[in-house]
Write a structure and sequence with these properties.
The complex is a heterodimer of chains A (525) and B (125).
Chain A lengths: L34 H4 L35 H14 L20 H7 L2 H4 L11 H18 L3 E3 L5 H18 L8 E5 L5 H8 L3 E5 L9 H7 L4 E7 L11 H10 L3 E5 L19 E3 L2 H4 L14 E3 L11 E5 L2 E5 L2 H6 L15 H37 L16 E3 L11 H10 L6 E2 L9 E3 L7 H19 L4 H4 L12 H6 L17
Parallel strand pairs in A: 2-3, 2-4, 4-5, 5-6
Antiparallel strand pairs in A: 1-7, 6-7, 8-9, 10-12, 11-12
Helix pairs in contact in A: 3-12, 5-12, 6-7, 8-9, 12-14
Chain B lengths: L3 E3 L4 E6 L2 E6 L1 H7 L2 E5 L6 E2 L4 E7 L3 E5 L4 E6 L2 H4 L3 H4 L8 E5 L11 H10 L2
Antiparallel strand pairs in B: 1-2, 2-3, 3-9, 4-6, 5-8, 6-7, 8-9
The chains are: A alpha/beta (525), B alpha+beta (125).
Chain lengths: 525, 125
Amino acid sequence: MLNRQGRPTTPGTSVTAAHLTFTGNKALAQIEPLIFETGRLDVTGVDYAAPKPFTSRLGGMERKNEIGLPGLSEPEAMRHYVRLSQKNYGIDTGLFPLGSCTMKHNPRLNEKIARMPGFGDVHPLQPVSTVQGALEVMHTLSHWLMELTGMDAVALSPKAGAHGELCGMMAIKAAIAAKGESAMRNVVLVPDSAHGTNPATAALIHFVVKAVPVRDDGTVDPKVVAELAGPDTAAIMLTNPNTCGLFERDVLAIADAIHAAGGYFYADGANFNAIVGKTRPGDLGVDAMHINLHKTFSTPHGGGGPGAGPVVLSERLAPFAPVPFVRHTDEGFELVEDSAQATQHGAQAFGRMTAFHGQMGMYVRALAYMLSHGADGLRQASEDAVLNANYIRAGLADLMSLPFGNRPCMHEVLFDDAWLKDAGVTTLDFAKAMIDEGYHPMTVYFPLVVHGAMLIEPTESESRASLDLFIATLRDLAFSVQRGETERFTGAPYHAPVKRMDETRAARSPVLKYAPPAPIAEAAE
Amino acid sequence: MGETKYTEDHEYIRIEGDVVVVGISDYAQSQLGDVVFVELPKAGKKLAKGEEAAVVESVKAASEVYAPVSGEVLEVNAALEAQPGTINEDPEGTGWFIKLKLSDASELSGLMSEADYKTYLASIH
């Protein structure tokens, strides 16, 4: 089709993109050098007055060489970071199927509420009388978390999932110490399918980790737990739904086996988003569980905002919850700040996890999510997350291989690489080809109990149309594997700003510091 | 060269009198992918059978290497720390991890022969 000026109106008819551009940029896909390469040492973007003469008291320790920071004007610095941000891929740009990470939509309402001055501008050292609203948010959030989990106490302050694990395990350690059993109870059972942070957390506070093998169906056998548990058992750390995306059906028997041995049941709450409103960890015999607000309750991940990992505790562990915590009294809300103060309220706080009160901005966002969804909305989010994962399973089960058979999964679906056997394409290659198609790859090679794992978690916030396109894309890639088109995979990504990384060399000889190129000797004119 | 035996966790030992050379099998290195980091025990350390002897980290995963038999660490292959790729290139030769002084020769009978290990590998695939 040509328009009235005789120019083509459909792509690829007469003009091809094969020619190179003068700048090297491809329209909006601009090349972005390192900031050290953009800036110049002889330029600065700020205009400070020269310091007044002073006598150095550094005793000869002064820096003598140039600091070597690049100089840029404000627009140059701004463009650099905006261009980099445009190369980024996030949940705001597309489907982000990173299994186990729960990359769900961060509602804009959360952001609006979190930016209100009463929340956004509070300082942790403000007098308590001036932050009553913020304390009420913490108190109400605590109430919701305890209600949704069926637990008796909550420690809000841990700053991420693994920090929450540490908090929960420290509460368990404190409870064991209070019973005078520290010397004998030092073993923590961790299933093979657990998050790597679980054994790391236990080891960090000097527990001895004992692995629990996983059954052929990907779940934990309570009989094996009962055999391994004994008078030396401090706790089991179990993720439910587990990292294979399967619900541990025998969770009650596992809890009974651990409790019968005198141990505690720590649940990794990373996958709580699959069961909110459907079942309560407290009813499953859990004694401690962290909740990733940045997963289940839609607060941002990573660069978008800090994580938050509150820990809920059972009646047996509640007295050992760390400070600070909020109390509601007749005079309003108060913060219980130290262990001595906590003792007055019948608690035996083991200490504190953070200098201040945790991630206030995340508390506001999480509570905004809860209140805007309501109890029924939270339940539906869990149901839709599970439905979406099963929709993807059903859409791909005939082409890709499911390690535990084609049975319903929870909020994420796990494939292995049996279907790639002898195809000349690895899980990693397949994931890299997804980048060319404009998708962030799923989680690969985790969990370790499955060969060449591909763990897909679409989350509830994807529409059916979005899921259909994702499934169609993966089917196209899978057919390409069947046709033997290995080049599409082994060299991928072809279309990304940065091509295939040499991961081995990056790990073996990482370059962690910018080194300016050697100065070029002045050539004779 | 002495007889080589294997564990279900894919460690091998090569028996050289009352000294055994411990490493990971060729299958283990192929499953791990490119090894990028190795943590070895100190010479003189006494290891019980099944105890963690070393840590090996690849681009895909970190794994423990367990002592296939009990014994005292006589020597470690310190060259691996600078050149972990040796484990991929020659796992059952220059890519060995540690040499142990065997403390209980009867533990050897619980390990697999090379033929048994090949059968075992076929069974897990």
